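Changelog note: in this version the structure field was regenerated for every chain. One regenerated record is shown below for reference.
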Amino acid sequence: MLRFAPRYGIISPCLSRPILGRHLRAVNDNADVWSGSWAQRGEALDTALRLFAAHGFSAAARARDAAVIAERGDEPGRVEFWVEVCATLDRRMARDFVQERRRQR
């Protein structure tokens, strides 16, 4: 465990600087794409988090595979759901999957 302890009697510059100008909220890299409410994205986000908990970094590939299975089963609603889950985990992979689907048609 690392602990910060400045020398006695000295005020550290990192403690004395004001935090003005810094981001006070977290910035999400896909915030411009996702402007919907929590209820709209709840199921896809919940599924993405559960998939990530179960499969780690391969969760996006698993979501893509589920989209392929749903496509072969002729379930367009499920395909879009799994693409959304994949996009939540890995936007590039989802984009490449959608582009590949368009090329095959």
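Spot check on this record: Helices lie at 13-16, 38-55, 59-72, 76-89, 91-104. Residues 37-104 form one domain.
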